[in-house]
Amino acid sequence: MITTRGYAAMEASAALKTYSFERRDPKDCDVVVDIQFCGVCHSDIHQVRNEWGGAVFPMVPGHEIVGIVSRIGSRVTRYKVGDRVGVGCFVDSCRQCECCRKGYEQFCDKGMVQTYNSQYYDGERTMGGYSKVIVVDENYVLRIPDALPMNASAPLLCAGITLYSPLKHWQAGPGKRVGIIGLGGLGHVGVKIGHAMGAEVTVLSQTLKKQSDGKRLGADHFLATSDPNTFKSRKNYFDLMINTVAANIDINSYLDLLRMDGTLVLVGVPPAPMTVGTFPLIFGRHRLAGSGIGGMAETQEMLDFCGKHGITSDIELIKIQQINEAYERVVKSDVRYRFVIDMASL
Amino acid sequence: MITTRGYAAMEASAALKTYSFERRDPKDCDVVVDIQFCGVCHSDIHQVRNEWGGAVFPMVPGHEIVGIVSRIGSRVTRYKVGDRVGVGCFVDSCRQCECCRKGYEQFCDKGMVQTYNSQYYDGERTMGGYSKVIVVDENYVLRIPDALPMNASAPLLCAGITLYSPLKHWQAGPGKRVGIIGLGGLGHVGVKIGHAMGAEVTVLSQTLKKQSDGKRLGADHFLATSDPNTFKSRKNYFDLMINTVAANIDINSYLDLLRMDGTLVLVGVPPAPMTVGTFPLIFGRHRLAGSGIGGMAETQEMLDFCGKHGITSDIELIKIQQINEAYERVVKSDVRYRFVIDMASL
Question: What is the mean pLDDT of residues A304-310?
């Protein structure tokens, strides 16, 4: 076994603190990654606080992991020692179901093995990226393009793919009007990616407070959702909207902003179910869809796209000792736009 | 003016009774239709009872109209006296907006002119098909295929297109698994059309009471939604589901029955908004969509498709004097599967 250190919650809602634990010795197809940076995702907080249920403690969170390969198993072919790699939201899947075979491992029928607060099919518990070392099968490891800095690339592993996947799938591109609801960790990467894909990008934010940021990130338009005129002027406007807001909003008002055959995609998870009217869907043949991260091949495609376009997350780099304070700030949306932990501080 | 007779509600929820009123004299592009039969749609009842708001009385309902052309305006080119024609849910639209130009007149930006309880852009009130005569612009008139009987074709004008449009749009066909939720006026036509398109059709009905009917109509499978095993055995199963039920059901349970990238389409309008969870949409990239009737060209396409495949509605023919009793039976789902009024009785 490999003894390592991390930051863990020992029980629900407890402050994270130093924790020693063991990783498995690398199997034939495993890669050992020395973690350099790990992004802080809002879902880390949901899980640590057991807001989605099913939390098992101690829990080492973190699924926006970048680092350097320090050791490889005997049958590893895709990576070598010294490679710059990433690990995202899951570290295994059944590899046999229709979803896995088609590259949608995130929707594996048997259930993907999440990077933390989960267990492998043989019962091994998973521990996340707020730690020094992780051991992962090479098929669930990604390559970080040379053109990108490591620290600001970390959030691409979750926030990046969460936005890239629906933008790609629903064909954001030239001539398409894309609305990004919420300019936070997810939304700000969506603006960058949507803009790079050639779409007309509009940010829909509560106020105009972040307007200059939005324009700098690549938004063509920036509208306040607190202004009723937004909902009049943009009626029947968008081909695609992506809701990144993890709070409950009046989804029907946004459905009315879609053009004929437009789609509103949910990537955030609000605490309560949505109240959806039938008419806002029927008129204009609108669609309300969900999208969750992406498969392995698509995640690599996203990283390569970001490498080509020089896209990373806007980050605030912190030491691991600042993590509990950072959580409070994430909950208050007080970060532009993603905390990334420098694991050298551990 | 043309004086005609119909059955009208004089106020909300009042019993329908004989009513004399006037139709406009035919304009250059108008067709005068002697109405032979008119279907009874559940939405007639909603409107008469002002359950959707905005009802204006007296109201002559009816938008599943078939009849014979008895007179034409000077510039009518598509129809001649004696032609078998139909009129559906709307009788005009702006003809200029993007939706109208693309053949989605039902989603006209200016608002389509509904066949009853509505008004033309010049203020003329519309009165529906529970009457002897109607005057309609030829562009909003449809041709009934010679192969089809008139009486059982009437419900195709609303129920038929309501199911044909989403089945066609979401590509029901060979190799596709289609679920029809609810076997009533809408659902039973959906089974026939989906089967004719070559899809595997499953009826999801509250009980197995209508199972033999379902199989006769063309369903490959018939499942009871009161049986919890239905929701286990059909998890991740359907490419497309169409919800025809106008009552509130647990939509999340049905979303879980969709395969990867599957779509659940709403065509019924339940009384209350739906409660929709985020996870049933995110897992499997599911979509919840709406669909409303169809455009003029698509409605003609549907009629021609039905002519080719010998599809009509299963009907119970009634006299106009039975309409109030028929309404009570529609509300209790006590009709197999659509009442059609024989207008010779008026």
Answer: 98
